[in-house]
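Table S2 (text version). Query chain:
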Amino acid sequence: MATERLPRYVNPRKMADGKRGYYWARPAWAKPPAERHGKTCPVVSSTLGTDLATAITRANAINEAFDQWRKGEGAKLTPGTVRWLFDWYRKLERFTALRHNTRAGYKLAMEQVCAIEMRSGTLGQRRAPAIDATAADSLYKKAKAKHGDRQSAYMMQVCRLVWNQAARHHKQTGVKENPFAGMGIQSSSGAGRGNRAATRAEYDLYRATARAMGKQSMATAAAICFEACQRVYDAFGFEDPDKRVSRGVTWGGYVPAERIGLIQSKTGNVVDIPLVDGVGEDRVELYPELEAELARMERGADDALIVRDERTGKPYTPTYQVQLHRRIRKAAGLPDDLKFTSFRHGGITEIGDSGTDDVRAVSGHSTLEVTRIYNKANQEKARRIASRRREHIELVAAGAVANQGDDDAEG
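Corresponding structure-token output:
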């Protein structure tokens, strides 16, 4: 019998029952901790069965996954596979027009989907048109077991977006149906493990600890996120990698005891938030905690960012900001799950607890039209939001004092 031509790394073996079987053996140089392009090899040595045709099919799928790992972005993609479909989607304008962080989250989810292990090879080597609803449900279970509820939901949502577009262009992609539609997965706000709201007590302790450590800028950034409900990258002025929008709160937009201009980086617009309400005896300070932190800062030029690294006088880098936040959190004895994003979440939650459902005038969740009339209406709404929030804060504080008094009396 002529010797069969076997794919790379495939060895014939005699089975216990005397039959000939086939085995794909990962080369020794590719075993972990060996890496290519920052990743360990996603495939392992595998049995391929005794049927030659089936063994060759499985081996080719494994070799394709192996080559993708070895060559990285330069590996040739097989048309019609899941990895090819993701690459096709990433070339569409609807993907390239997304913000940097969103694109990065999508790409991570796609890589995680492609890396899901199958009986032979990985999902990235499977034909995209062949995936049906049953397969999608099975993939979701595997993703949940490895990546948790939130990230696995995000992965399936990204697949739903991709397959939806693929079905619209079925002549090009071969995909006619979307197996990821109707899975009943609750919406996720993005990649990652989620976020919780910081309490005002945690926020107060964090700021006090940051000040004690000589990091006033971190206390001020926390106040901008918690009190003014700004996103972390807006509070710190992290540069947009795509350079499409401006970020950061500058000194020129801050008039003490009057207003502060905040960047809504979703639009690039600056919205003036009133800091007081009323006049004379009826005057109420709406953000005393925020203004107290700003007053501790050395005021810079009008175009200078308010939050800057004390060591250099320059804007924070995202990496150092995360490291410093961890140090402050640990020094304060605060829980590990308190992220910097928790401050914004806590501020928005506090507004909701005060009885205000629509926080867009402060938080910038939605796009704002650039008109003076709309901005005036927005400022008035922001003033009402802050007034009700301030009443809520004082009511909660008064209740806490009353409860302490009752405890002391009982004692």
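Notes on Table S2: The mean pLDDT is 83. The first strand starts at residue 10 and ends at 14.
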